[in-house]
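Collaborator request, handled under Task 6.
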Amino acid sequence: MKFSLRTLLILLCCSFSFASISFAQEQGEAPPPQEKSDDGVTQTVEVTNAKNPDWKSYRVMLKGVDAFEKFHARAPQAIHKFILKPRRAEVELRGVSLRLSTDTFSRPIPIAEDGSFSLPIDMQAKEQNAELMINRKKDMFRWWPLVRSPTMLVNQRRLGDLRLECEMFWAIYYDDLPFIARNFVRALGGPCNTKKVSFSFPAEFMGLKEATLIEGDRRQSLPVDLLKSSYSLSLFNNAYSDDAVIELVYENSKAETSESRKRNFNGLSVAVGL
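Structure tokens returned to the collaborator:
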């Protein structure tokens, strides 16, 4: 029997909503964080221009960094990164800023044009339960681990990169799953380490036509959802090493290097076969 983990994802979303409400009730209208300039003068720092801004726990996101270090051998040339992915086409990255904040300090974190950023290691911020905050309302962006080996082309994904992304994602969101869902997934060995779990990855752009897993002379065609512009596979496949490459072919091959291509805003989905 094969079914979608939609129920688990719904419960996960409910967990996020509950956590957001609890955080808002506990914090109330907290004063804006402050930081000191070079001359020692305390200055007020503007963190956001949006009510109910989106945020993530710094401690939780550091679990993704820990997972990256633990499984770094899967993508030895990559550096740890995360990315803010717009949930809808009308949501823009332009003007988005990110800060690491507590009640007593605020530290800006640079964001690249594609929404990617590296997470600094700050023990003081960790001890003070800092939050990562963007100047946008909740549910406009997905917070996602990003692993991309520098040798990959725009239409390629390395299997080891995807496996490492999975480990980072699982480390970050594991505790947000309800108890039953958490233990159900763990009983399978974790989503990244079982053949019973398959992932549907969104291509970077719309118009995906084909997806092929390639290593040496071996080629395996992957299922493609043309409507969602996504491809599916199980990450636990001993027949292919971390150096295997997924090659993506789009409907308009000439557009693969064009800036005018439409981005794909679909998210990752998971299915379990029992």
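The cover message to the collaborator said: "The chain has a mean pLDDT of 81. The longest helix spans residues 6-27. Please let us know whether this matches your experimental observations."
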